[in-house]
């Protein structure tokens, strides 16, 4: 099976995963703290949410990093030709788990912002509704991704079962 997996493609994909990990790390160290401080500075009504937004943002990026550990492992299994085995299931579970926790964190931020932003007199309505729209679209995309991964997990289970049956026959 490994002859079907191009090592250059897998290497390129792993390089992209490394870049994503580095971007998440940069986000945790620089971007999220800067954004939470900027939000508190621009809108006094959001000052109390600076630290909760910071913690939730860092945890969200940690969920992304954890999910990409599962992706990395799936790439490794693909390269060795054993992706359609029981070894792949925990990887998919890790991706689904990371996405699920990230989705809950997004929902918490959306709810907190909806409550605190709506009562912030200094925040223009356009800013408020723009942030709500971005958070809402992100939440919908995350839910869609989780549903897609659940379907992919079912397909992986079916392929693994068929591969196991074929192995027993041979």
Automatic annotation (TrEMBL):
UniProt keyword Transmembrane present: yes
Protein name per the record: DUF2975 domain-containing protein
InterPro entries to which the protein is assigned, alphabetical: DUF2975
Alphabetized UniProt keyword annotations: Membrane, Transmembrane, Transmembrane helix
Taxonomic lineage of the native organism: Bacteria, Bacillati, Actinomycetota, Actinomycetes, Bifidobacteriales
Entries under Pfam families matching the protein: DUF2975
TM region(s), chain numbering: 51-72, 92-116, 128-151
